[in-house]
Amino acid sequence: MTTSTMLPNHLGGQWVTGSGAGTPLFDPVLGTELARVSSAGLDLSAGFAFAREQGGAALRALSYGERAALLGAIVKVLQANRDAYYEIATANCGTTTKDSAVDIDGGIFTLGYYARQGEALGSAHALLDGERIRMGKDPVFQTQHILSPTRGVALFINAFNFPSWGLWEKAAPALLSGVPVIVKPATATAWLTQRMVKDVIDAGILPPGALSVVCGSSAGLMDQLQPFDVVSFTGSAETARIIRSHPAVAERSVRCNIEADSLNSALIDPAATPESEAFGLLVSEVVREMTVKSGQKCTAIRRVFVPRALFDAAAQAIGAKLAKTSVGNPRNEAVRTGALVSQEQKASVIEGIAKLRTEAEVLFDGSSTALVDADASSACVAPVLLGSREPAKAKLLHAVEVFGPVATLMAYDSIEEAYELIRRGEGSLVCSVYSADPAFIAAASLELGSAHGRVHAISPDVAASQSGHGNVMPMSLHGGPGRAGGGEELGGLRALGFYHRRSAVQASSAALDVLAASAVALKL
Ligand code: NAP
């Protein structure tokens, strides 16, 4: 890739380069320009119509099993090109190989999962939702709820932190459902998304119009949406507000899924001691969540709740581990934590830390340690652990998401207070609970479930097998109420619901028998 190469968009079944000078994409460590993107001058209306009509019709002509085979073929193409994806991620996202894997292999794994799930749906073209229900005394007239693929496009407006996984975790259920995809990646890291789409298109796996990518400005994209289209947005709460209030959603009832920011928590059992296994597990997980992808994960732990008696021990143990974290150029194998994705994100994280510091003390600040193979002009930021012994009095600590290697330790006096403080996040993606006591875990899960998309319990017996607080697994629900956006993604075949329309067919048993022959029961 030479400097300033304009990455073409794929829309209307063809590759189209946007007009104008475009927006540059940078290496966040070296500061060099890598490529440019532009969506200026694209015929969005024709592109959306092509996807809706050509792509949609071709995908719907296939069964779930046939579409699952397409997902399997995409997996093979992506696996064959993995090395190129890692190179792009290192250059454009500033991530170490291990951190790039979360995005790249996480995306491929999710696709593979849906390929296997879809295969089991076989030759069907619709899904049966539940059993038939009698409508009256005479059993001949019944109602059967069915799910049919929506006859529109799925527009994905994605965040910068997962250019691979963010695409495939949405595209897998959409394509399996028979719904064409148009993805608009976040500009800062659009290269990886664009390259993956290019490889899949070049391989000729999908029918024309099934997969499109628009890089650069989002201007005009939402205006294209029609009543049977869907939009899935991942990003900040601020942009989410714009999406929600757009006439497509507000007036044309375009179905809208929002994955926004989140002040996720970690909670340790009040009975834990500094010597307990639960304590060690909490410390390791907090450090992992603060440092993986430099804390640029929507699911990362932002608030850590410990009983007051454990506050100092937790601060010391987390700080000691963070002190061993080397930060810098991801090309150096000694580096564990790479850069933030851009100078804008660095400025935003520094500003965010300053805000939180008005309500918290600094328990650990890695910025005094020299960066490895990177200088102060890079977008590298060292981890910072803040602390509050009076979190009930804080406002910003429960409201400001600093999207970087930053978390705040908080003391609680009773478990009821801890639950209350966790809920001050006003809805989060995930809360992890650390305890050796199954009864405590069960009680905490019931208490916290309604405010979270996921409760992740880490007990000594699952220490080696647990999937990680911040890792989003395709079989489990992703999303959260309130501030987290109110969205739902993944959760196995539940994800297909967003791309299908539910209707009740009220008919004779004979007609429902015929209908059932081309459908399959949705088993969750
Ligand atoms: P962002 O600034 O809101 O941008 C998200 C996407 O929206 C980008 O593709 C952006 O394009 C686009 N966009 C910006 N303005 C728009 C508009 N007026 N209309 C339509 N689209 C518009 O968010 P971000 O900085 O990329 O992502 C970080 C945030 O995402 C964090 O708060 C994080 O918690 C959240 N996040 C949440 C999840 C989740 O699953 N809940 C996952 C990942 C990230 P440009 O890049 O071209 O501006």
Summarize this, please?
This protein has 524 residues and is α/β, with parallel strands linked by helices. The protein is built from 14 helices and 23 strands. The protein has helices spanning 44-60, 64-80, 82-93, 97-119, 165-177, 190-202, 237-244, 247-250, 277-291, 311-323, 343-357, 415-423, 438-448, 509-517, and strands spanning 6-7, 9-11, 14-16, 23-26, 33-37, 126-134, 141-149, 154-157, 181-184, 211-213, 230-234, 255-259, 264-268, 301-307, 361-365, 384-388, 406-412, 428-434, 452-458, 477-478, 489-490, 500-508, 519-521.
Cα radius of gyration in angstroms:
24 Å
State the helix count.
14
Structural class: alpha/beta
Tally of extended strands?
23
Share of β-strand residues: 15-25%
How would you characterize the largest beta sheet? Answer: 7 strands, mixed
Strand order of the largest sheet: 15-16-17-14-13-18-19
Q: What small molecules are bound in this structure?
A: NADP nicotinamide-adenine-dinucleotide phosphate
Helix content: 25-40%
| Regions with little confidence, pLDDT below 50 for 5+ residues | none
N-to-C span: 45 Å
> What is the general shape?
globular
Q: What is the average of the pLDDT values?
A: 97
Describe this protein's structure.
The chain has 524 residues and is α/β, with parallel strands linked by helices. 34% of the residues lie in helices and 22% in strands. The protein has 14 helices and 23 strands. The protein has helices at residues 44-60, 64-80, 82-93, 97-119, 165-177, 190-202, 237-244, 247-250, 277-291, 311-323, 343-357, 415-423, 438-448, 509-517, and strands at residues 6-7, 9-11, 14-16, 23-26, 33-37, 126-134, 141-149, 154-157, 181-184, 211-213, 230-234, 255-259, 264-268, 301-307, 361-365, 384-388, 406-412, 428-434, 452-458, 477-478, 489-490, 500-508, 519-521. The strands form 6 sheets. Strands 15-16-17-14-13-18-19 form a 7-stranded mixed β-sheet, sandwiched between helices. The protein has a 5-stranded parallel β-sheet with strand order 10-9-8-11-12, sandwiched between helices. The protein is globular. It starts with 5 loop residues before the first strand and ends with a strand. The model has no long low-confidence stretch (mean pLDDT 97). The structure holds NADP nicotinamide-adenine-dinucleotide phosphate.
